[in-house]
Specification:
The structure is a single chain. By secondary structure, this protein is an alpha/beta fold. It folds into 2 domains: about 5-155, SPOUT methyltransferase, trefoil knot domain (Alpha/beta knot), CATH 3.40.1280; about 175-234, Trp Operon Repressor, Chain A (Orthogonal Bundle), CATH 1.10.1270. It has 7 helices and 9 strands. The chain has helices at about 25-30, 70-80, 100-105, 125-130, 145-155, 205-225, 225-234, and strands spanning about 5-10, 35-40, 55, 65, 85-95, 110-115, 135, 190, 195. The strands form 3 sheets. The chain has a 5-stranded parallel beta sheet, sandwiched between helices. α6 (about 205-225) packs across α7 (about 225-234). The two termini are about 30 Å apart. Bound molecules: adenine (ADE). Adenine binds next to β5.
């Protein structure tokens, strides 16, 4: 198994919001085993303003504050002077919508910065001059980019070689081949009279594999027919 260490720097005004997602279970183990280094930077620490402000009123007027350029530019310049970054990502509802294919590609990167937006967003000059990729986790608006960043990082880190115990399990996830995953069952084989499909108890690997493929296709046809069309386009 080849070993890689990815580094992810997350820039946020709410570092506390990102503590627990990365300090439990798979995400914590991935860091402990050295597969990924996740560094969280508090943008406020880089404010030179005496009140440690990180936002300001919009030019041209209008409701809502805008994240200031200086503290964010300072951190990004500092990080860039320390290593080369493959992507500098801005989490934003108007970015490209995250899908499995994007997570797959991003799991091959070495160093990544993720900027979490707040308020009305960041001064657009940050987006124009530093950001290389803008990502949304769906067509709805969150209070900030932190939860979106946690979703993105989770989707990437679980794909790094060695992070999941059974290395094949990420490959059999939903979406990996544009199909949803088939239903799964565990003991007992009967509960309240509800039985596990007979074929899964048959011990016949070939039949079981065929059943799983059929179920995956059926589920996809019923729930996400768009995925099947997408597969046909490629
Ligand atoms: N920030 C606020 N809403 C978001 C979303 N849907 N995706 C990514 N970042 C966001």
């Amino acid at each position: 198994m080849y070993f890689c260490n990815m580094r992810i720097d997350i820039l946020t005004v709410l570092p506390k919001l990102l503590e627990s997602p990365f300090s439990i279970s798979i995400m914590q183990r991935a860091q402990d085993k050295g597969h990924v280094t996740i560094q969280i930077h508090n943008i406020r620490d880089y404010s030179t303003n005496k009140h440690k402000n990180v936002d300001d009123y919009q030019y041209g007027g209008g409701a809502g504050m805008v994240m200031s350029i200086e503290p964010i530019a300072t951190i990004i310049e500092k990080l860039k002077s320390e290593r080369t970054y493959d992507e500098i990502i801005y989490m934003s509802p108007d970015g490209e919508v995250l899908e499995q294919g994007m997570a797959n590609k991003m799991s091959l990167l070495k160093n990544v910065i993720i900027l979490c937006g707040h308020y009305k967003g960041v001064d657009n000059r940050i987006r124009e001059h530093y950001i290389t990729k803008e990502i949304s986790i769906g067509s709805y608006v969150l209070s900030g980019g932190e939860l979106a960043a946690a979703v993105l990082v989770d989707s990437i880190v679980r794909l790094l070689p060695g992070v999941l115990n059974d290395e094949t399990s990420a490959l059999t996830d939903c979406f990996q081949d544009d199909l949803l995953a088939p239903p799964v069952y565990t003991r007992p084989s009967e509960f309240n009279g509800w039985k596990v499909p007979e074929v899964l108890l048959s011990g016949n690997d070939e039949l079981i594999e065929k059943w799983r493929e059929d179920q995956a296709l059926l589920r996809t046809q019923e729930r996400r027919p768009d995925l099947l069309k997408k597969g046909g386009e490629n």
